Amino acid sequence: MRTLVPLLVIALLVAACGGGEVTTREAQTAVVITLWPKGEGKGARKTARLVCDPQSGNLPDVAAACAALASDAGRAALDPPPLDQMCTELYGGPAEARIMGTVDGEPVDAHLSRVNGCETQRWQALAALLPAYQPV
Asked: What does the pLDDT look like over 63-99, one tens digit per residue?
C-alpha cells in the first residue's frame, strides 16, 4: 500500500498536467516593427506591433500583415538573400526597417532595406508590416 499511494499521486499529477501533452498555446507570432523612412538613425522612426492568433496590433491592416508573415514569400523575406545571389543594382531608396519577435514560435530579427533588387523584393513581400511607408 505504501508504494501504491506515491504511484497514485504521480498518476494524478500527470493527468492534471494533460497526460504529458504540451499544454502551451500554438506557436505564437508577435513582432515589433521599426521603420526609418530616411534610413536607420536618420530622422523620425515609426514603430508598430503585431500579434497573430488572435490578431491585434496597431497596423492599418492587421489581417494582411499576419497573412504576409504566414505566406512562403513572407517567411523567406525574413532571411537575408544568400551571399551568392545576384541582385539588380536598382536603388529603391534610403528606408530601412527591423522586424523583431517571434514568428510561429521561432525567434526573428530581420533587417530590411531597399538598397538593391533583392532587398526591395524582401521589402515588398513584407510591405503589409511596414507602417504607412511612402517611398521618399
From this structure: 999 999 999 999 999 998 888 889 888 888 899 999 9
Sheet-wide strand order for 96-103: 56-57, 46-52, 29-36, 96-103, 106-113
Give the containing element (helix H, strand E) for 100: strand 96-103
Domains and CATH numbers, the chain: 25-129 (3.30.350.10)
Q: Residue 111: name the closest of 95, 87, 132 by CA.
A: 95
**Angstrom distance (rounded) from CA 64 to CA 59:** 9
What's the farthest any 2 CA atoms get from each other in the chain?
79
Length of the chain: 136
